[in-house]
Amino acid sequence: MLLVLSEEQRAHLGCLPSLGAAGAGELGRLALELLRHGGAPRAVETAARSLSVDAEALQRGLDGLSFLLAESSKLMISETDFQDSVHVLGFSDELNKLLLQLYLDNRKEIRGVLSELAPRLPSYHNLEWRLDVQLASRSLRQQIKPLVTLKLHLSEDGDQTAQVLQTDPSTLLHLIRQLEQALGEMKSNHCRRIVRNMK
Fold first, then answer.
1. Which of 46, 69, 153, 169 could lock onto 126 through a cystine, CB 3.0 to 4.6 A?
2. Model's pTM, two decimal places?
């Protein structure tokens, strides 16, 4: 699976050949630091001074390289697919090998960092439900008032929580239709592509 880069991302990576092998290696180190710990403007300014390039151009190159490494790691692109993806950029063989080595050496660590950044959401554990129907009251002898009570049990990091929801059947039917529609949309090619890229 090839990684497709937009024109903007290609433009950001365009500064790599002018930096040379040492400069590209330094930019790779900064990109890994950016992925691990977030942005460090001082480190970018220091690197820009040492490489005698504009700090803003270096920051754009850093963003492009970070994106390339993060997306490649997230999609678990193979060695040949990564080479083909980078080859399209028109870099020298030396720079392509440097980027490939940077990717191969750090892809597991980058995947670990990306998994830590992913939101932790509760997952379904169990569902209890009850249907209550009020048939009459003191003021109304013939009254039918149904009420559905749901108790949703969720698990999050080994802890279990319960949410109690109460609704009438018409609202519950509307909710069911909306969820079925969402499940139907998940079968579309567009959603499948998004889900595949998220893994």
1. 153
2. 0.61
